[in-house]
Amino acid sequence: MSHQITVHHLNSSRSERLFWVLEELGLPYNVKVHFRTETNSSPKSLLDISPTGKSPCLELDGEILTESSFIVHKLLNLPDVKDKSNTVNLIETEQDNFWSHYAEASMLNLMQSTAIIKVMSTTWIQGKTDDENGNNLNEGNKKAVQDFTSYLTGKVIGSQLQQSINFAEKFLTKENSTGWFSGTENPGEGDFLMFFAINAFVAGKAKGVFQIGEGFKGWHKRVMERPAAQKAVKREQDELAKAQSA
Ligand SMILES: N[C@@H](CCC(=O)N[C@@H](CS)C(=O)NCC(=O)O)C(=O)O
């Protein structure tokens, strides 16, 4: 059975995961790119489609789906992807379940808070928000906002994120590790969900910000050696470029 699939992708966002899982499953898909507003939020075009107002949002055979882990779970359980069971772990293991929760609840929550604080601090200092105080900050207050932002994102949230990274690293480097969060010989739901964060730490915007060990580096290398992951990264880049020039 062929499916009608459209990924609603917000630039620089966790919808990146869907490209990888769709390529692994060999499911053809369309992409609609939505560009973030000045305050890093979803634009109207995405708010009009996504009931949660967030990305990722996936249209699957006319149904609108949100929440990354729900979407990935649903895709892995489509009856016609069973022939991928030699290369992808389709049956969710306990580890998959744990790491797909962990990705959102113990990593992405901290990454997102950091991003929100940084963007809001900058836009507020520049007087670009509706808040009238933004325009009125004197140089001393601007510096205070900047210092508090660094304290929050570095010492407070940054150190919590480092702890979350260390915990996941430990799992990947333990003695009987298979090298995948699924705990099997193939990547599964937990791996697809962890992709956005680890890709950001190893190769993306957060590269060099945190201490990353051999666990994450090896995992990322294994992922990027997979033709499906390479296709996913290229497709995302091509779609962004196409949308930018449209
Ligand atoms: N737990 C949700 C989080 C969704 C989420 O917060 N997505 C961000 C992008 S990474 C977003 O849509 N941000 C725009 C906004 O909040 O306006 C999921 O995994 O789908």
Automatic annotation (TrEMBL):
* Residue span(s) of domain GST C-terminal: 89-246
Q: Which Gene3D superfamilies match?
A: Glutaredoxin
Q: Where are the transmembrane segments?
A: none
GST N-terminal domain spans which residues?
Answer: 2-83
- Name-wise, this protein is Glutathione transferase
Pfam families from the UniProt entry: GST_N_2
Member of which family? Belongs to the GST superfamily.
